[in-house]
Task: inverse folding
């Protein structure tokens, strides 16, 4: 197991290098650069000499291969560089937002799993009943309604029914837990609904499949209590594909809540991503792509390792 | 009321608004409520209350804190409360200027020197006393920045020859040439006064550190979230500020900003909102919201790339300009966007602006659009392009670029011209504009005040004005501009601006489509803030107070 984990960690390196190369060159294809957006974006009458001076300061006038070398050397030393827009370290820009994004992702995952497991299980066990249909309607709703739109509905409902809105600026949970939860529970709910729908449907279909397996029939034939059949034999196996979905969804939530963050005015990674792209802030985009890629790779590893925990037949060597 | 007074307040034009919107009863009620709210507001104006924290929206985030090297309002709305300037605009009598750090000043009769006496006992937030050396250091940085420092106002102060500091409270600017707009430029909100000590330690320091003499002391800037400041008890304008502090929250999405204003989390948005957003707030909040409106020192321009065929032909450019019904467009677009006023190169209603009747005689501004379009068709036929097709480059911003683009496509369709509307994100859009990779484009002019020196500069020859996206070269316009800068007689100056407009619109390199209309929502409890035609002025918040 340890050797397998080490191998997988080592395999992350070429994957991330591939991502680094791709993102670097793909960004350079986009016309325009951050200097023009910064100095001419609001109609500034800035001389070409000033533009060239800024480009020089940011290293944008260097040949592409030298810029690439700087980027790769920086990566090797875990230095993601400096934002071309704000002149602040990329790690600082990301760190400010990561706490919020991580918390929303964790809360949304918690809400999703908490609801999805009983919903999916109940629907599978009561297949064809009104309960099953109700769960299916709820989950189809979750898949059909975009999270940001659900978020807008939540905001409008809070505003018009209770004349109240969640706090507009972020307070860390260790500073004021109530203020923190008052702000983040709503986006977590908005995102968690869709997330829950995906997982619940996966659990339902997976459980239905497992319930027809020979080993379930055998367990029942042996006289094992139905509760034990479901919890120990069926659900445990049915959870494997759901774990994969949970992992992918969690990684997506780190940087993928672009519109939802805008709806709730959240200072998260998704919003930063959009801003950095619109400003052509190459270093910041590169830094964030690397972060999100690292998250995906790491979560995939965790999911694979969890397989072994849930399914005793799986052994990594 | 002085008809040349440029600032338009909806409250004082109530009868006009009633006539214009007679069929819209809810709107009329809203305006009446606003009018009454204005009266109530004014009745409280004499008795400011102290204390409280103003929370307001800033719809963009500044990349840094250095206003010398910035052109975005985001920097002013962020930094103005922390800094002072030499002069400032008196928004009660706009565009009159009054002293800020300057206690008084004299201007030489030949406009070749400006002598400022500074207030005594002004201190920076770090405790250092302000002296004339700080003014000199700040203006030297503006007009001739050290290597590696960006000053976006270098050209503005190119006419300054020397800056002298005969004593700690006196600073003298000596000019190389007359610039009739210098006093207004000394009042620019961008020209923050920095400490010479800070600049000596790190000329780039103001980008990341705040140390001014303004009414508020910097507390924190949480990137992507907010900026906050607390009252400067040692502020040199005694008795000010009234507020204990402020918090400017970055709200990049309009819906989130409107929700927050409606929900009471934010009390104002000082840049400007659209008519639809205004109507939503008025409908939802009724008497709790105050709306102030003014014409705006921003416009959209139609720009023809004069280096590309057939737009190198003045007849084609003129024909396309003549096909646009600006007067009709104003009536329609003003209902759905921030576009409203028909005007020339300076803001309509400002001192040097052409009267509507004079404007209507210029190509592209005719009120007889049917005849103008017939003439436009003939011009296109004469130029050999009766079936013209081209691409219109536009910014991918909903307000007001998208409606403006759709409007133009329709206007040109009516003279048989086929247009592809291409909207692009800001970065590729700017790249296309600066590299000349476009046929026709929608550009914009963003002025921080009504200064013809700034307004006309955009139309100078491309080698003199990189912001001239049409890439035109016209020595006649350049000469008219130079003559106008040096001209001290306002009447002659106005005549020179008129001559400039005539030449410009005859050639049709680029011309304003419509000027924007500024709509600012504030909670009824926000007092002392003053409306102006520029979203960059009056943002130091020194005189703002909360009536709660």
Result:
């Amino acid at each position: 197991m340890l050797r397998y984990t080490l191998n997988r960690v080592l395999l992350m390196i070429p994957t991330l290098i591939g991502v680094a190369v791709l993102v670097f060159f793909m960004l350079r294809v986009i016309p325009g650069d951050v200097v023009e957006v910064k100095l001419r974006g609001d109609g500034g009458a800035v001389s070409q000499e000033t533009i060239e001076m800024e480009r020089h300061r940011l290293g944008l006038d260097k040949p592409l291969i030298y810029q690439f070398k700087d980027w790769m050397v920086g990566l090797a030393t875990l230095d993601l560089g400096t934002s071309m827009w704000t002149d602040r370290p990329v790690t600082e820009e990301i760190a400010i937002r990561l706490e919020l994004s991580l918390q929303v992702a964790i809360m949304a995952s918690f809400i999703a799993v908490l609801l999805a497991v009983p919903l999916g299980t109940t629907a599978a066990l009561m297949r064809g009943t009104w309960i099953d249909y109700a769960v299916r309607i709820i989950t189809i709703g979750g898949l059909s309604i975009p999270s940001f739109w659900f978020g807008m509905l939540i905001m409008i409902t809070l505003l018009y029914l209770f004349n109240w809105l969640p706090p507009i600026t972020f307070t860390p949970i260790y500073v004021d837990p109530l203020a923190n939860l008052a702000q983040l529970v709503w986006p977590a709910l908005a995102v968690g609904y869709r997330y829950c729908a995906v997982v619940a449907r996966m659990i339902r279909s997976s459980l239905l499949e497992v319930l027809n397996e020979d080993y379930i029939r055998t367990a029942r034939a042996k006289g094992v209590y139905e509760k034990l059949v479901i919890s120990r034999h069926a659900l445990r196996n049915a959870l494997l594909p759901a774990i994969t979905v949970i992992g992918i969804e969690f990684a997506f939530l780190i940087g993928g809540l672009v519109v939802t963050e805008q709806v709730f005015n959240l200072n998260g990674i998704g919003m930063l991503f959009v801003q950095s792209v619109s400003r052509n802030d190459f270093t910041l985009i590169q830094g964030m792509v690397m972060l999100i890629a690292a998250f995906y790779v790491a979560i995939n590893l965790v999911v694979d390792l969890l397989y072994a925990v849930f399914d005793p037949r799986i052994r990594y060597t | 009321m002085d008809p040349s007074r440029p600032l338009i307040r909806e409250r004082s034009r109530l009868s006009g608004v009633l006539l214009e919107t007679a069929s819209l009863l809810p709107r009329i009620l809203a305006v009446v409520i606003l009018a009454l709210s204005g009266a109530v507001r004014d009745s409280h104006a004499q008795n400011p209350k102290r204390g409280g924290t103003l929370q307001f929206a800033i719809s963009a985030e500044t990349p840094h804190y250095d206003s010398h090297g910035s052109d975005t309002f985001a920097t002013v709305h962020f930094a103005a409360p922390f800094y002072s300037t030499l002069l400032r605009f008196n928004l009660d009598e706009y565009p009159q200027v009054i002293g800020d750090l300057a206690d008084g000043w004299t201007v030489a009769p030949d406009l070749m020197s400006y002598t400022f006496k500074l207030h005594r006992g002004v201190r920076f937030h770090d405790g250092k006393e302000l002296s004339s050396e700080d003014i000199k250091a700040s203006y030297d940085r503006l007009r001739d920045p050290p290597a590696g420092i960006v000053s976006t106002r270098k050209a503005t102060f190119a006419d300054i020859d020397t800056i002298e500091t005969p004593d700690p409270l006196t600073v003298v600017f000596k000019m190389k040439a007359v610039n009739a707009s210098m006093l207004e430029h000394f009042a620019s909100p961008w020209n923050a006064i920095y400490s010479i000590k800070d600049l000596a330690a790190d000329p780039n320091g103001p980008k990341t550190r705040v140390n001014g003499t303004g009414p508020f002391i910097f507390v924190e800037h949480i990137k992507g979230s907010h900026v906050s400041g607390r009252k400067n008890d040692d502020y040199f304008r005694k008795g000010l500020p009234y507020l204990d502090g402020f918090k400017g929250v970055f709200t990049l999405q309009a819906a989130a900003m409107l929700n927050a204003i409606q929900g009471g989390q934010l009390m104002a948005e000082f840049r400007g909102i659209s008519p639809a957003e205004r109507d939503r707030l008025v409908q939802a909040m009724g008497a709790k919201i105050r709306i102030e409106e003014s014409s705006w020192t921003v416009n959209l321009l139609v720009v023809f790339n004069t280096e590309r065929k057939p737009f190198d032909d003045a007849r084609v450019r003129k024909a396309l300009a003549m096909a646009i019904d600006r007067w009709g467009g104003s009536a329609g677009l003003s209902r759905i966007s921030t576009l409203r006023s028909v005007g020339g190169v300076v803001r309509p209603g400002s001192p040097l602006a052409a009267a509507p009747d004079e404007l209507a005689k210029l190509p592209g501004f005719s009120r007889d659009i049917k005849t103008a379009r017939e003439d436009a068709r003939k011009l296109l036929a004469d130029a050999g392009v009766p079936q013209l097709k081209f691409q219109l480059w536009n910014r991918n911003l909903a307000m007001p670029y998208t409606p403006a683009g759709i409007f133009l496509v329709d206007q040109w369709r009516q003279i048989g011209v086929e247009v592809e509307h291409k909207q692009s994100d800001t970065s590729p859009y700017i790249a296309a504009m600066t590299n000349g990779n476009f046929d026709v484009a929608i550009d914009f002019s963003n002025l921080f005040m009504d200064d013809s020196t700034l307004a006309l500069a955009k139309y100078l020859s491309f080698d003199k004005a990189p912001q001239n996206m049409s890439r035109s070269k016209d020595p006649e316009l350049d000469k008219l501009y130079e003559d106008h800068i040096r001209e001290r007689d306002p009447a002659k100056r106005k005549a020179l601006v008129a001559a400039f407009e005539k030449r410009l619109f005859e050639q049709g390199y680029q011309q304003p489509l419509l000027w924007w209309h500024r709509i600012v929502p504030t909670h009824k409890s926000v007092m002392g803030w003053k409306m102006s035609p520029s979203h960059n002025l009056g943002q130091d918040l020194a005189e703002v107070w909360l009536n709660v």
